Amino acid sequence: MTDLSFTHRYIPAAQAGLPPLLLLHGSGGDENDLVPLGEQLLPGAALLSPRGKVTENGMPRFFRRLAEGVFDQADLKARTTELAEFIATARKSHDLAAPIAVGLSNGANIAISLLLTQPGALAGAVLLRGMLPFALQVLPDLKLTQVLLLFGRFDPLVPPASRERLVATLTKTGAFVTSDLVEAGHSLSQQDLTIAAQWLRELKLEQDT
To answer: Less Cβ around it within 10 Å: N or C end of the chain?
Structure first.
């Protein structure tokens, strides 16, 4: 599909009452990349999976970077706004509630940017191997927003100081932050899937009460 400004996949819900998942791939992924993950994490939920519009050496990304860990701030701001507009349009088109983002690496980073600069675009987030993409002087009020952060103990791209900075920033917004360190590097592990699936199941129960 190429409407709604992003090449994307949309899979309607097979079970009522589940929050939709917004699947945001990592560098080199596409709109198909995280669909199997979404189906495992919350079976029956609606899935919305866009492809990043930026390419780096032929690999899709959600925003440009100048070097490893150095992000193009102007492009990040513009791409975040564009993605928020896509989410709003998709919600109207498919009659969706605010989604829970499931972001991996670059996808996690733009999800963090959405949380911090586009309050209301997301109902929550599962952030896999993310880092804070910028520093904000004024933080949004994210009370009632639930965020799961999963870091790899051996991840060379997200060192301990970066992990701590992200947790501290999101906590200051008032979001309910859960973080865990899995025995992995930058790639996903079965431990990630187990923790994230349980978190999403418990989130559903809280939303239903």
So the answer is: C
Residue at 1 is within a domain:
no
CB 34 within 8 A of CB 25: yes
Question: Can you give the pTM of this predicted structure?
Answer: 0.95
Number of domains the chain contains: 1
In a domain, 3, yes or no: no
Q: Which of 8, 33, 155, 192 is flagged as catalytic?
A: 155
Cα 65 off chain centre by: 18
Q: Is residue 195 a contact partner of residue 148, using CB atoms and an 8 Å limit? A: yes
- The two three-digit tokens of residue 6, written as one number: 């992003």
Annotation marks residue 105 as catalytic:
yes
Active site annotation includes 155:
yes
Structural domain that includes position 49: 8-208
> Do 115 and 145 form a contact (C-beta atoms < 8 A)?
yes
Amino acid at 197: A
pLDDT tens-digit series, residues 45-88:
999 999 999 999 999 999 999 887 789 999 999 999 999 999 99
Q: How far apart are CA 148 and CA 127, in angstroms?
A: 6
56 part of a folded domain: yes
How far is residue 24 CA from its own chain's centroid? 6
